[in-house]
Design brief:
Length: about 160
């Protein structure tokens, strides 16, 4: 007796038809919706909140671009808007990255154990900060991954269905 025939017989005993493929599809949809509800929506909310904060509090460079835009050729207004959007996206990433670092420091407790000023009066300098300043990028190990994820989520319509 085949598995399909066994399922049909079992379905007959239960008074229903058994379609495992349909059931598996429903289970996957439930898992997908739960994952979206629990994680993706929260991530998108965090991104949007930080994005709005970046737009409402422009840097001097962004304010300058916005101020000179009316005096420039209208053909490049779209490019200026795209540049401003890219700058705000990077600021959004920086804000979220800082929030992640803050949570990491709180959970590890390492910030509380190490004094900022040594006994001899010299300020403690974070080694990772020094490395990122010398490189000039400001991205550590996992930050590039977070940045790429944020870019994909900001530009993706896959989760906005």
């Amino acid at each position: 007796m085949s598995n399909n025939q066994l399922l049909q017989n079992l379905g007959g005993v239960l008074g229903t038809s058994i379609d495992l493929q349909q059931d598996l599809n429903e289970i996957m949809e439930i898992i997908r919706n739960k994952f979206k509800e629990k994680y993706i929506n929260r991530i998108e909310s965090l991104i949007q909140g930080n994005r709005m904060q970046a737009q409402e509090n422009p840097t001097r460079e962004i304010a300058l671009l916005q101020a000179v835009k009316p005096f420039l050729n209208p053909n490049i207004h779209l490019q200026i808007d795209q540049l401003i959007d890219a700058m705000n996206t990077f600021r959004t990433f920086q804000n979220i990255s800082q929030q992640v670092k803050s949570v990491q420091l709180q959970s590890s407790g390492s910030e509380e154990e190490r004094p900022l000023i040594q006994d001899d009066g010299v300020y403690e300098i974070d080694e990772n900060c020094m490395n990122s300043k010398s490189v000039g990028i400001g991205m550590e190990n996992g930050e590039l991954f977070i940045f790429i994820l944020l870019i994909l989520l900001l530009g993706s319509s896959k989760f906005n269905n």
